[in-house]
Amino acid sequence: MPFLENKSPQILLVEDNPLDVELTLDAFRESQLSAHIHVARNGQDALNYLFGRNQYANRHSYPLPNLILLDLKLPGMDGHEVLQTIKATPNLKRLPVIILTSSQEERDLIRSYDNGANSYLVKPISANGFLDVVHQTHRYWLTLNVSPPVSDVGDS
Q1: What is the CATH number of the domain that holds 54?
Q2: How many domains does the chain have?
Q3: Could you count the other beta carbons within 10 Å of the beta carbon of residue 58?
Q4: How many CA atoms lie within 13 A of 151 on its CB side?
Q5: Dist. CA 135–CA 29, nearest whole Å
Q6: Tens digits of residue pLDDT in 70-121
Q7: CB 82 within 8 A of CB 74
Q8: I need a labelling partner for 77 at 20 to 30 A (CA). Which of 41, 47, 51, 156 fits?
Q9: 78 belongs to a structural domain
């Protein structure tokens, strides 16, 4: 699916912590940023969304995102495994994946970039800091950045 210039950007937020989900959604609302945010609560759910499986089979209702915000510490399949799968899938590998995590561990940082992450952001502690991160992420990745086209997984 190519980037749709006249429609709200689609973001897939992969986050299991309900407080962080609400903080992210609130930050987008407060910033009055136009984006439709889909939430996946674990790694498997994120991949089901991206591959259009199960309840996400309808691409009109669940389009491929223009941006993925991915937490690393997820139940079951962790963010590193999700990132590896995305970047190993020809029709998904161009999707920008931003790691948004509380981990400040150097090994997580290195592994994320080695696996193809486009950016690595540490979640700020304050609500204002989080608001700023969301605003800057939206501004750069969905306004300034020119992304390559991405095809649906079923497309060839």
Answers
A1: 3.40.50.2300
A2: 1
A3: 9
A4: 7
A5: 10
A6: 999 999 999 999 999 999 999 999 999 999 999 999 999 999 999 999 999 9
A7: yes
A8: 156
A9: yes
